[in-house]
Amino acid sequence: MSHSDNGFFGQFGGKYVAEVLRRPLDELETEFRKAMSDPSFTQELEEIQRDYIGRETPLLHAATASKILGGAQIYIKLEGLANTGAHKINNAIGQCLLARRMGKKRIIAETGAGQHGVATAAACAKLGLDCTVYMGEVDVRRQQPNVAAMELYGAKVHAVTSGSRTLKDAVNEAMRDWAANPDTTHYVLGSALGPAPFPDMVREFQSVIGKEVKKQIAERNLDVEALIACVGGGSNSIGFFAPFVDEDSPRLIGVEAGGIGPDVGQNASRMTGNASRDGILQGYKSRFLLDDDGQALPTRSISAGLDYCGIGPQLAALGKSGRIEFTSALDKEALEAVKFFAKNEGVLFALESAHAGAQAIKLAPTLPSSKAIIINMSGRGDKDVFITSPVFRLEKWLDFLHAEIERLEEHKDIHEAKIMG
Ligand SMILES: *Cc1c(COP(=O)(O)O)cnc(C)c1O
After folding, report:
1. Own/partner pairs for 407-416, CB < 8 Å, 24+ apart?
2. What is the distance in A from the centroid of ligand 1 to the CA of 390?
3. What is the pLDDT of residues 149-208, one digit of tens each?
4. Calpha distance 161→105 (Å, rounded)
5. Is residue 88 annotated as part of the catalytic site, yes or no?
6. In this structure, which residue's CA is closest to atom 5 in ligand 1?
7. CA nearest 27: which of 168, 184, 174, 132?
8. Residue nearest to atom 3 of ligand 1 (CA)
9. Residue 137 known to be catalytic
10. pLDDT tens for residues 103-121?
11. Which end of the chain is less packed: N or C, by CB atoms within 10 Å?
12. Over the stretch 333-369, which tens digit does the pLDDT of each residue have?
């Protein structure tokens, strides 16, 4: 099941949208297929992947970590070294190049924690496109570092005030905008979900990860037992797994956010959680965390990128068929994994990616040292300093924040005069 059959992955997927969105979605699908079979497009994509994103990204042998755990050799695919710090840029650049080819100069995107917004804003800056990012008002307030970055890249950040004022509402607002402006505007959806053709398209742009890994495995002659990735909407995992899903091995393991426990509202486990069910939401059929009335349930995770209530339809189907195994990691296990790989490998995982790291820590000791397991480090952890510092070193962090506020208040005027001239 490496791609959809007319938009469907088994029983999941589809295009459950209002009539006004059918034409732009159909047009997008046609143009995407044309572009991917046009060497001038794929060559331009490869060039920008190399020179702007910094591909290929390394596959690091985590020798010390492997030795300490005493089992399989752990390898880390360093997607966090991609420009802007995570895998999201692979999709953002691909879709923005496609939009430019289609003559659409205005880009819109939704963002939750802000990572996809940052990637899209950067891609638009690079390609000379106008960018508007829809972001829930609650997220705008708690994710200021990413809002600041988007603005530096020249994007307009539109704070969404409807509903719970978070990601789900930002998606709705972006869909509404696209429906009103389909001729001038392309909607860059941030994960491998939503109505067809987005799940296929996002997977294709992210599959550069898996293709490189496949080549790197062959170059080093590794005997790979498992690939492990964290799963939010599912773009880094499906991109990593894609070249392997039609083969029997290696094992493919998706790790969801286990949050603080198994109860409803304590996690975001769409495949393994007890509130998980089939549903249709935001244009596609998949597995969601829903209440008895079919409304999205609240989720919880220390990692902002893993707390969406739905999962991409291809992953849902591959979970059902058994090709992908799903498990979860708790917040505290992800935090331990961040510490473990930082201290022993000099690699700072994003909290999202650390969920995959936590699973590797559990799995490696059960395997012989002749085997390899590969973690996709979807992003680096610099962005999480506002979350990890209060956990690991609260007092020092509070001192720092107080001192910063004092410094800024005292020097406000001098500051503005000096820096902005
Ligand atoms: C957004 C994000 C994720 C989750 O999104 P997927 O679509 O599931 O990949 C994971 N890791 C990082 C670093 C992210 O920014």
Report:
1. none
2. 22
3. 999 999 999 999 998 898 989 999 999 999 999 999 999 999 999 999 999 999 999 999
4. 26
5. yes
6. 232
7. 184
8. 305
9. no
10. 999 999 999 989 999 999 9
11. C
12. 999 999 999 999 999 999 999 999 999 999 999 999 9
Q: Which atom of ligand 1 is nearest to the CA of 350?
A: 13
Ligand 1 pocket, mutate which of 79, 95, 115, 135 (most atoms under 8 A from CB): 115
Q: Which element (helix H / strand E) includes 383? A: none
Q: Which residues contact 174 (CB under 8 A, 6 or more apart)?
A: 108, 109, 110, 134, 187
Query: How far apart (Å, rounded) are the C-alpha atoms in residues 244 and 210?
Result: 8
Q: Concatenated DSSP letters for 127-178?
A: HT-EEEEEEEHHHHHHTHHHHHHHHHTTPEEEEE-STTSSHHHHHHHHHHHH
In angstroms, the CA 361 to CA 354 distance is 10
- Decide if 219 is catalytic: no
What separation in Å is there between the alpha carbon of 350 and the centre of ligand 1? 9
Whether the CB-CB separation of 209 and 236 falls below 8 Å is answered with yes
CA distances to 214, 284, 327, 352, 357 from 241, rounded to whole Å, are 10, 21, 16, 17, 16
Lining residues, ligand 1, CB within 6 Å: 86, 88, 115, 191, 230-237, 305-306, 350, 352-353, 378-379
Element holding 385 (H helix, E strand): helix 385-392
Cβ contacts of residue 109 below 8 Å, gap of 6+? 92, 116, 117, 120, 131, 132, 133, 134, 174, 187, 188, 189, 190
369 contacts: CB under 8 Å, gap ≥ 6: 66, 70, 71, 72, 73
Tell me which of 88, 126, 371, 383 is the catalytic residue: 88
Quick one: which atom of ligand 1 is closest to the CA of 86?
13
The order of strands in the sheet holding 324-330 is 59-61, 73-78, 372-377, 224-230, 251-259, 324-330
Q: What is the mean pLDDT of the chain?
A: 96
Tell me the C-alpha distance between 406 and 421, whole Å: 22
Tokens of 286: 């998949």
**Helices and strands in the chain, H and E counts:** 16, 14
* Residue whose pair of structure tokens reads 């006004």 in the numeric block: 20
In 3D space, the residue among 207, 198, 261, 184 whose CA is nearest the CA of residue 233 turns out to be 198
